[in-house]
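User: structure tokens for histidine kinase, please.
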Amino acid sequence: MTEYRWLLPSVLLGDGQDGRTVRRSTRDWFVDIVIFALCAFGTLALLGELQASGTRVSDFEQLLAALACVAVWLRRRWPVGLCLVLTVITTYFILAGPPAAVALFTVAVHRAFNVSGPILLLNLLTVLPSAQLRPDPTLPFWVNVGITEAALLAIFAWGMVVRARRQLVWSLRAQADKAAEEARRLERERIAREMHDVLAHRISILSLHAGALEFRPDAPAEEISRAAGAIRGSAHQALQDLREVIGVLRAGDAEEPTPERPQPTLDDLPGLVAECRQAGMRVELEVEAGEVPERVGRDAYRIVQEALTNARKHAPEVPVSISVGGVAGQGLGIRVRNRLPARAGRGMGIPGSGSGLIGLTERASLLGGRLSYGPTPGGEFEVEAWLPWKT
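Assistant: Done. Predicted tokens:
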């Protein structure tokens, strides 16, 4: 949010963090030049009015008023100190009134009320001795005091309004930045989940074929060639998926969103099962569902994919049965079962993060469904899910 630092009510020239100096922007230079010109014009106009009313203005007071106008350039670096000095000066030298008003406005804009409030009170209190020491011959004492204090209150209120507006703009922009950052974080998490599902599936198939070559080095040349081709194809597809996600992550801060590759749906389940059968798994698939919504179909595909990946890891030689069915309005049910291995340690030894099924549970919950997994009393491992399917 550094590009919005000028909006912060406490950030002034010299208020940079870690001792760094905040430099004036082009906008700051323009505003300061205009304010300096207004101070000079207001001081000259006040001088002419005082002289026209017969009030004597000394050369020292004119010099002091000129220096006060020049000191306005310091209002960004030392707003409180400048306002205090000019407040004391204007107690007697009223020609410095315009720069003092600018200093009060600056404090109201750039400092919290616990700082600007006492300074306003000091300004209001100094009006009484100023009106007594330098009375206006054209106005009664209390009228002069009332007009001056009303002017100070109006200037201070204007500064508070400007401060409130800047705080609101800064807050809205900060919230927008936070929302954009949160959206980028969620998108990266979604990509990470997708890549976990895809790469775990690809690498488990690759490991299955490699394990077959390791334990059957005397297999026929045709079978070895087919397994090597499957390894090559799985590795190539895994690398392609990895390049795609890296490209998306690198383009995450670009203005134009990177188009996503086509996502799998429920219609792609037969292809997934065929790929697993080619890798040597025994898989039975039963689908009794019509045209399901795209997101429901994608999540159902990912659930089946992760369940098959776990089956390859922990029970590669055990048959797996998959049943998917449902109707619109009642939801889509998914059940993946396989017998638990006869003895522990018969899996392929593929390392896993342990977060695959947890991630699928979160995916189902986000969609409004549910997912459970674990061994059954019948000696099977079951992954069961229900996803809402609205009409």
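User: Anything notable?

Assistant: Residues 1-20, 253-259, 344-353 have pLDDT under 50 and may be disordered.
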